[in-house]
Amino acid sequence: MKTTNTAEPKLFIGIDIHKRSWHVHFNTDLFKGKGMSMPANASSLKAYVERHYPDHEVYTAYEAGCCGYSAHRSFESFGWHSIVFNPADLSRTGNAQHQKTDKIDSALICRELKDRRLRGISVPSIEREQLRCLFRRRLDLVKDYRQIKVRLKGQLLYLGVEIPEEYDNPNWSHGFRDWIRSLKFEHDTMNYTLASEMRQFDFIDASVREVSNTLRKYCRQHYKKEYYLLRSVPGIGGIVACGILSELGDLKRFNNFKQLAAYVGLMPSMYESGGNSKSKGISPRGNRIMRSYFVEAAWQALRFDPVMQAYWRTHGGKDKKAILIKVARKLLSRTMAVIKTEIPYEIGVVK
C-alpha cells in the first residue's frame, strides 16, 4: 500500500535582532538545527530558508526592542507565522542565567518557540504605531521643557538673582518670562547666555503646543467616538485620551480588566511563602508611560468626581500613595467600561 506524507514539516527560527546583523538559530520539528549570523534584513533570511528549507511551514520569534515591528510585518508578508514577545518572558535556566551572547539568546528563543512557551505581544497597526510616535514626541518635548526651566532657575540662583515672590512658583506666566528677558547683567556674555536659553525655551514651548494640538486634532478626526467617550470620564483630559488611543490601542481587545491592569502596570506585586503574604507595591512590568499618566489623572478625578472623593475619604489616615494607586486603578476600570459599553460616563452623586 502506498503511503503519503500529509504532515507539512515545520521550521522554527529564533532571531536575536540588532541594527547591523541578526543571529538566527534554526530547528525543525524533528531535528536540531544550527545557528548563524546574517545581514539585518528579512529578504536575506527568506532567501536562505527557501534554499535550505523548502516546503517548510515557518515559525519565527524575536524580542520586542529598538528595531520595532518591521521585521515581523515582513515575515507575515512571506506567509510565515511570526511573534514578537516581551524579553522578560524568555526563560533562562542553568548557565544561560549567567551567560548572555547572541548565539545563546537565539538558541533559547528557538527552543521556547518550538516548545510553544512564548506568548506574543499585541503588534499595533502601522497607523497606530505612527500615532504612538507622535505621542512620544510630545513626551520628549515636555521632558526638554522641564529641563530648560530647571536649568534657567538654577542659573538665576547661581548668580544670586532673586525671583520676585509673585513669580516664584512652578507656573511660568508670560509676566515671569518678560521679567527674565528684561534682566541685564554686567557683562554681555551672561546676557547672551540668557537670551540663548530663552530662545530655546520659546522654541520648545511652541513645539509642545503645536504637537499637542496636532495630536488632539488627529484623534478627534480618526477616533472621534472613542476620544469623546474617554473625555467623559472625570480626570481624563485630551492628552491622556490621546495617550490611551495611541499606547493602549483598542481596549476591546482585552478579555477582562485584569489583563488591561497588567498591561498598564497597575497590578499589585505579591510575595507569599509559608502562609505569610505581603504586597510589594505595583508591578514594575507594564506600560510605564500610561501608568504615570493614570496616576496623574487620578488627582484630577479626585477634584471633580464625588464618588472618587468619597472613596478617598473612606481610606483616610492610610498610605496616601497606595490609595492614589487604587484610585488610578478605578479610573482605568472606568475607561475600559465606557469603551466596551460605548456609553459616556455620568458623574455619580454620593447619597
Structure report:
The protein is an alpha/beta fold and 351 residues long. It contains 12 helices and 7 strands. Helices cover 52% and strands 14% of the residues. It is globular.
Key features of this structure:
351 residues; alpha/beta; 5-stranded mixed beta sheet; two-stranded antiparallel ribbon; 12 helices; 7 strands; 14% strand; globular
What coarse outline follows from CA principal-axis ratios?
Answer: globular
Quickly give the structural class. alpha/beta
β-strand amount:
5-15%
What is the makeup of the main sheet? 5 strands, mixed
Give me the count of strands: 7
String of helices and strands: EEEHEHEHHHHHHHEEHHH
Average pLDDT, to the nearest integer?
Answer: 89
TL;DR?
The chain has helices at 42-52, 70-77, 102-114, 126-158, 174-182, 188-222, 224-231, 238-248, 257-264, 288-304, 306-314, 320-341; strands at 10-17, 21-28, 32-39, 57-63, 81-85, 268-273, 276-282.
What is the strand and helix layout of this fold?
Layout: E1 10-17, E2 21-28, E3 32-39, H1 42-52, E4 57-63, H2 70-77, E5 81-85, H3 102-114, H4 126-158, H5 174-182, H6 188-222, H7 224-231, H8 238-248, H9 257-264, E6 268-273, E7 276-282, H10 288-304, H11 306-314, H12 320-341
Parallel strand pairs: 1-4, 4-5
Antiparallel strand pairs: 1-2, 2-3, 6-7
Helix pairs in contact: 4-6, 4-8, 6-7, 6-8, 7-8, 8-10, 10-11, 10-12
